[in-house]
Amino acid sequence: MEETVEIPVALLSRMAEASEAMREFEEELEDYLISQDTGLLSRLERARQQHRGGVLRPFAEISGAE
Questions:
Q1: Where in the sequence is the domain holding 22, given as residue range(s)?
Q2: Residue 42 lies inside a defined structural domain of this protein
Q3: Which value, in Å, is the radius of gyration of the alpha carbons in the chain?
Q4: Taking 90 as the threshold, does the pLDDT of residue 20 lie above it?
Q5: What are the backbone angles phi and psi of residue 2, rounded to the nearest 5°?
Q6: Under 8 Å CB-to-CB from 59, ≥6 apart: which residues?
Q7: Is residue 1 part of a domain?
Q8: Helices 9-36 and 38-52, interaxial angle, to 10°?
C-alpha cells in the first residue's frame, strides 16, 4: 500500500539548506580536530617529506590493511 505525503516546497528548501549547513559544519569540525592532533600532523608532515624525497611505500603497509 503506497501513500503519498505532500511537503511544501519552502519546507523542502529549508531542509536542503539545513543539510548543506550541516555538511559544511562537519567539514570544518573535521579540519579543526585534525589541526589539534599534533601527532597526526607530525606523521603527515613526515610522510610529505618522504614522498617529496622519493620514498614510497605500498598503502597497505602504512594503513595496516594487509
A1: 9-63
A2: yes
A3: 22
A4: yes
A5: -95, 145
A6: 65
A7: no
A8: 80
47: helix, strand or coil: helix
pLDDT digits (tens, 9 = 90+) for 33-57: 999 999 988 988 988 898 899 888 7
Residue 4 lies in a domain: no
Burial 34-56 (b: 16+ CB within 10 A, else e): eeeeeeeeeeeeeeeeeeeeeee
Note whether residue 2 is domain-resident.
Answer: no
Number of domains present in the structure of the chain: 1
The DSSP secondary-structure symbol of 64 reads T
**pTM of the complete model beyond 0.90:** no
DSSP state, residue 4: -
Separation CA 36–CA 40 (nearest Å): 9
